[in-house]
Amino acid sequence: MSTGNCYFDDLRNKPEVIDPAQDEELLEVSEHMNDATQIAVKPNLTVSSSVRELLECPVCLNAMYPPIHQCSNGHTICSGCKPRVHNRCPTCRHELGNIRCLALEKVAASLELPCKYQSFGCMGIYPYYSKLKHESQCSFRPYNCPYAGSECTVIGDIPYLVAHLKDDHKVDMHNGSTFNHRYVKSNPHEVENATWMLTVFSCFGQYFCLHFEAFQHGMAPVYIAFLRFMGDDNEAKNYSYSLEVGGNGRKMIWQGIPRSIRDGHRKVRDSFDGLIIQRNIALFFSGGDRKELKLRVTGRIWKEQ
Ligand SMILES: [Zn+2]
Ligand SMILES: [Zn+2]
Ligand SMILES: [Zn+2]
Ligand SMILES: [Zn+2]
To answer: Where is the SIAH-type domain (predicted)?
Structure first.
């Protein structure tokens, strides 16, 4: 049935919401009014946390942004939830109509709140309406786990993710800015079961992820090797790297700038931002009877001046 019924089912379990005790609301307000000492000692804190509660949509529990709607009894609801409640106020079940709550919108505009990544080190305080935009770009926002082989949902800062890669994904860790890696696969014709490898390099006081993956590009199976920087894009640009692969007197060289791990490995892979090796060439480099993939990839990371 419609989603509206869910809300009503919910309300039946919580009858006190249907008939809000108005005295209680008044009491709450007068409490804050009389508590002058508390407000004087902690300016804004008590006030803003109760205003913040007012700005929480009773249905989705998210912070509300304009247009904020209200029913004729004054219950508010966010613009995302309004179309889903079939014109019934989810709090009092009265007709919702189309009343905007300008007063609350204006109160919100006067609020200043800390960035939600405060616990990650961001000290920023932002006006209510620009907080979301800041948070979407905050340099303290956690990174997703860069491991490609699973649907890992771990997030954290770089030191946390480095430890996570080592401990939970058993990723190879290397110190130094040069590498010489052999990728061996006995049945290279099964590209579908994506061959992929991740190695983490530590150099210049930073961490880099070297990815090696097999994937199907249209009809053609290809291999790709690329580097990602464990940090933000503006810092990634300070580094360059080169990759080399070859055999039988031939050599392919790639030079690039590592991508930030803010870009998912799939996004980087699908933009071909790395050393691409067609399978035919890869098997040719491998030598032998083309039954086994044996690639030696060498490379170097350096810091741009
Ligand atoms: Zn909502
Ligand atoms: Zn209502
Ligand atoms: Zn922030
Ligand atoms: Zn992970």
So the answer is: 110-170
